[in-house]
Design a protein that fits this description.
single chain
Length: about 130
Amino acid sequence: MSDPKEAAQLLSMARKDLQAMRALAFPELAGIEMFGFHAQQAVEKGLKAWLAAKGVEYPRIHDLDRLLDILREEGAVVPVEFDGLGVLTDFGVAFRYEAYDEPDEPFDRAQIIGQVESLLGHLAQHLPPGTG
């Protein structure tokens, strides 16, 4: 059975992580680990909100790729544009406790913010009325 109350609560918390991402968007203000942690958390909570709205008991994991897979296994139509968000998984655990070495190509914080906004907007449109 769908749990709109839990879905709404998770989506609300995901939006708070998105607010934190916006505040941490500038490298001179915050390390990538902090920004990445909130990005990972926003996506994780958003995906779990989607699962809760579908009535799926979601696992207590941080693996974003696995959460996307579960959604698809449950019949959700997940746009492929969200598949790239799986790269944030390590920020939920590993990079909270160790330094993240910036890759040769800088981590594009504005692009990640845009992707998370898109995901949460998509969820709000596809959750049951009164949830999003």
